[in-house]
Write a structure and sequence with these properties.
The complex is a heterotrimer. By secondary structure, chain A is mostly beta strands. Chain A has one helix spanning about 25-40, and strands at about 45, 55, 70-75, 80-85, 100-105, 115-120, 130-135, 145-150. Chain A is built from 1 helix and 8 strands, in the order αββββββββ. By secondary structure, chain B is an alpha/beta fold. Chain B folds into 2 domains: about 5-120 and about 210-225, Thiolase/Chalcone synthase (Peroxisomal Thiolase, Chain A, domain 1); about 130-205 and about 235-380, Thiolase/Chalcone synthase (Peroxisomal Thiolase, Chain A, domain 1, 3-Layer(aba) Sandwich), CATH 3.40.47. In chain B, strands 3-2-4-7-1-8-11-10-9 form a 9-stranded mixed beta sheet. In chain B, α4 crosses α15 (about 335-350). The interface between B and C is large, with 62 and 63 residues.
């Protein structure tokens, strides 16, 4: 039969990785956001004057109105927890190789939520609407993880 | 009931080696805003978005989702197409079909690339089959070098003949404010540029560019209200032929030959050299400018060099090719094929500024990519019957 | 509206954990051959091809190149959509409506087994703001589940019911690789992945391919006496940043469904639709998407599931195929939903056949937390 040989074929597997390094441009808007965190531990959002949305992370353009956003606005540093999850599996992508707890935090003065890590909190103590504050790492380099995580404001 | 479709406007960024001031989404926004300004439309008028780039050049998965802030796709039908080098022309073809279907009146079509963000060769290498081709023959240049060698061997063409293509495109680019490389080069400079893969040298090849292009396609009835001289889509065609590099037939670009046959028949073109007024061709390297114009039926096989040396394809000649400067002067890959179409449309619309060819009624644009895909879009000033 | 377009044939490989014997091209060839046979059409009569694939899942840029030969596109017009097959099928349909072609072959492939979903889905997140956090499809879906359950009081038990139902349905689908007889307790006790999502709330990642053939009305008549008509299609996208929207909403799905229902003339989906095949990458998503599809009110997805209405013997069967929870070929999964709906309408769904299906909805998703949705309404 034409396909007899299939039965005895050893299926080969070729292991490899694609190797493509990247240098992503943050852009001027994002750069201001990150350098403000690095140098002054201040978190900035950007406001659209047409719809009054305040975006964190900041955007050069308002996706709703499709115009350039306007003024920079200092937000937070505290905020409110909108959604969260405690991760239970390991991934080499997790910062510090520890299964993280993630949250979406609406910083005071912002109309959008920032996705980030949560720390110094028992997972069962997490509640929607919890008040949180950022913990900054030392030294900072101009990276989103210059905010190490958000923790509850009263402990 | 199929609609007739026209390009009513476009926008491009000023293409550069490296745009550090913007991230990818912002680059897309820039081109999109320019297209809206060009047409006097707002994002509210747009009823759909299609976008494309070559994924591994920026390393972002689901770009149609990620780029929403800059593409205006929030709340709208948004979709991504990607076919490698032909991405831009694939997008143009899709723009046509989607509006002709009657389901969109004003469709925004965006091609973009931020080549500065990655190692181009490492990224392109991933296009090739990991088991059979990748470790042996990868990279965009090797295949083209073989094609060039075969062409030279078959017809006796020389590296000097090919260099004339680079000289033409680079000279034209000086008239295009959006082009990446805007400095003329001489034949001697091309011939003495650093060798890459025989017979290809650095100046035979296209650069790597950061850039974006946005084009607005509109349906008949709507197009005429947006601009006085829309560029009507007369027809599209494309072909692919090979998946494995070893299968390819390196004598000529058959896919271009077949696609152009189909297109010319559809549109009723019998003598392309006479009936087409300008061409924006995706020539990623110099030799293509000799051999692929033969595939397009502009002259018999082997006679491409004659057209170049006679000045037929220069601005001012009988059939100018690449008044924009082409791919050799500017190559933001995901945008490149779309720029060809946008430039062809600008020519028909009489909006090509200093690079305008006089009296354009019919213009052809092409796209090329791995694995020897060819795309064609023909635009014209007269609405098709 | 638009010219009548029919689906005249479908083909799908078995969806399996690891199709180690087959390449992308092998799977595509198999699905295409099946679709051609089902449609009783030869490859020469196919006018053009649209493929669907994803460069990251395939580990190759220009992923379409891997299957150009296998999809029969030699010397034909061809294009590629990167995203779920439902979006590719939409584009394939416009290529007929444009007047350019009479038939379009659409084929999607994916092999989840060849790489690590955590890395691949991490790559859909912004490299500056999100990727360094180590997010992936599961951890972000978990936050959506958390927000959805908080806002509407959806319970973990209601989510578990979806898993119980779909895995049981899979016994009747030879193409699905995870048939399981579960109780709600089994689901609740399964290993937590990211609160509240447990192992049995999550779909696997599978290998497979699926193909379908679209034809304009005049061409369809030449090949089949059982065309399945495309009554409506709609798709739309939500904002990208997860914090830009309330994850308990699905505005994009509502907009997509509205467009599709509008074209199909459907005013009361719960009444007028006989069957739904939707993109249940996680159990909570089936609940949320039933709301977005208008099968119940906002916040009532849990109640709908608990009522038994979405069981195969219920008033609005959802995922009689077993859904993604039983077999999840990523970008192929939406096309499989269309294929399943087609088989149901043609009365060819064998053991999983639901009686008297005249109108069905098929649904696909792109992007994190259901950012972009495509809805198809198909009819006899």
């Amino acid at each position: 039969m034409a396909y007899d040989w299939l039965q005895d074929t050893e299926p080969m597997v070729y292991e490899s990785r694609i190797q493509v390094p990247y240098s992503w441009s943050v852009g001027d808007t994002g750069s201001r956001f990150l350098t403000e965190i690095r140098d002054h531990k201040r978190i900035l959002g950007k406001r659209c004057e047409a719809c009054e949305s305040v975006y964190v992370p900041p955007r050069k353009m308002c996706p709703r109105c499709f115009v350039d956003t306007g003024p920079w606005v200092e937000v937070g540093p505290s905020g409110t927890l909108v959604a969260f999850t405690r991760v239970r599996y390991a991934s080499e992508l997790h910062p510090g190789h520890v299964p993280p707890t993630y949250g979406i935090i609406r910083l005071d003065g912002s109309t959008t939520g920032l996705v980030h890590l949560l720390g110094e909190v028992e997972p069962n103590a997490l509640r929607p609407e919890m008040r949180l504050e950022p913990v900054f790492r030392e030294p900072r380099t101009g990276h989103i993880l210059d905010i190490a995580y958000f923790r509850p404001t009263h402990r | 009931m199929a609609n007739r479709v026209a390009i009513v406007g476009s926008g491009q960024t000023h293409h550069r080696t490296r745009r550090l001031d913007v991230n990818g989404v912002e680059l897309i926004y820039e081109a999109t805003q320019r297209a809206l300004e060009d047409t006097g439309l707002t994002m509210k008028d747009i009823d759909g978005v299609i976008i494309g780039n070559m994924d591994h050049f920026e390393g972002i998965n689901y770009v149609d989702c990620w780029s929403i802030d800059g593409s205006g796709g929030w709340g709208k039908p948004t979709l991504k197409l990607t076919t490698g080098g032909t991405t831009g022309s694939t997008l143009a073809i899709a723009g046509y079909h989607m509006v002709a279907s009657g389901l969109f009146d004003r469709l925004l079509v965006i091609g973009w690339e931020k080549n500065s963000e990655s190692d181009t060769t490492a990224a392109i290498t991933t296009a090739f089959d990991p088991v059979w081709d990748r470790s042996v023959f990868a990279g965009a240049i090797s295949g083209l070098a073989v094609e060039a060698s075969v062409y030279m061997h078959t017809y006796g063409a020389t590296e000097r003949d090919a260099a004339r293509v680079t000289v033409r495109d680079r000279r034209h680019a000086c008239l295009n404010p959006f082009a990446h490389l805007r400095k003329e080069v001489t034949l001697e400079e091309v011939l003495s540029s650093p060798p890459l893969a025989d017979p290809l040298k650095l100046l035979d090849m296209c650069p790597r560019t950061d850039g974006a292009c946005a084009v607005i396609f509109a349906s008949e009835g709507v197009a005429e209200r947006i601009c006085p001289r829309p560029a009507w889509i007369l027809g599209t065609a494309n072909r692919h032929l090979y998946t494995y590099l070893g299968d390819a037939d390196y004598v000529g670009l058959k896919s271009l030959r077949h696609a152009s046959r189909e297109l010319y028949e559809k549109v009723g073109i019998r003598e392309p050299l006479k009936e087409i007024d300008v061409m924006e061709l995706y020539l990623p390297y110099s030799f293509a400018g000799l051999s692929w114009i033969e595939e397009l039926g502009l002259c018999p096989p082997g006679e491409g060099p004659r057209l170049l040396w006679d000045g037929v394809t220069d601005l001012g000649g009988e059939l100018p090719i690449n008044p924009s400067g082409g791919v050799i002067s500017c190559n933001p890959i995901g945008a490149t094929g779309l720029i060809r179409c946008a430039e062809a449309a600008l020519q028909v619309m009489g909006k090509a500024g200093e690079r305008q060819v006089p009296d354009v009624h019919v213009a052809l644009s092409s796209g090329f990519g791995g694995c020897w895909w060819s795309d064609l879009v023909m635009v014209g000033s007269t609405k098709p019957a | 509206m638009m010219d009548r377009i029919a689906i005249i044939g479908v083909g799908q490989t078995r969806q399996e954990r690891n199709k180690v014997h087959e390449t992308f091209a092998d799977m595509v060839f198999e699905a295409v051959q099946q679709a051609l046979e089902h449609a009783r059409i030869g490859i020469r009569e196919i006018d053009n091809v649209v493929t669907a694939s994803n460069d990251f899942w395939d580990g190759r840029t220009i992923s379409s190149m891997a299957v150009n030969d296998a999809c029969g596109s030699y010397d034909k017009n061809i294009s590629t959509v990167e995203g779920d097959g439902t979006f590719a099928a939409f584009y394939g349909m416009t290529r007929i409506l444009s007047g350019a072609y009479d038939t379009t072959l659409v084929v999607a492939h994916c092999k989840g087994s060849e790489s690590d979903a955590k890395h691949i889905t991490n790559a859909m997140f912004d490299p500056v703001y999100l990727r360094p956090l180590g997010l992936d499809n599961i951890s972000t879906a978990a936050m959506q589940a958390n927000r959805y359950m908080t806002r509407y009081g959806i319970t973990e038990e209601q989510c578990a019911l979806v898993s119980v139902k779909n895995h049981e349905n899979a016994y009747r689908n030879p193409n699905a690789h995870l048939p399981m007889r579960l109780t709600v307790e089994d689901v609740l006790r399964s290993r937590l992945l990211a609160d509240p999502i447990k192992l049995l709330d999550a779909s696997p990642v599978s290998d497979g391919a699926c193909a379908l053939i679209l034809a304009r009305e005049s061409a369809a008549a030449r090949y089949t006496d059982r065309p399945v008509w495309v009554r409506g299609v709609g798709y739309a996208a939500d904002p990208y940043h997860l914090g830009d929207r309330d994850l308990a909403d699905c505005d994009a799905l509502v907009a997509a469904a509205k467009r599709a229902y509008g074209m199909a003339g459907i005013a009361d989906p719960a009444e007028e639709i006989d069957l739904v095949e939707l993109y249940d990458a996680f159990s909570y998503q089936e609940l949320l998407w039933t709301e977005g599809l208008g099968l119940c009110g906002r916040g009532e997805g849990g109640k709908l599931a608990a009522s038994g209405a979405t069981r195969t013997d219920g008033s609005i069967p959802v995922n009689p195929s077993g859904g993604l929870l039983s077999a999840h070929t990523v970008t192929v999964a939406g096309l499989v939903r269309i294929a399943e709906a087609v088989l149901q309408i043609r009365g060819e769904a064998d053991q999983r056949q639901v009686p008297a299906v005249r109108t069905a909805v098929a649904h696909g998703v792109n992007g994190p937390c259901g950012q972009s949705h495509c809805v198809w309404v198909l009819g006899a």
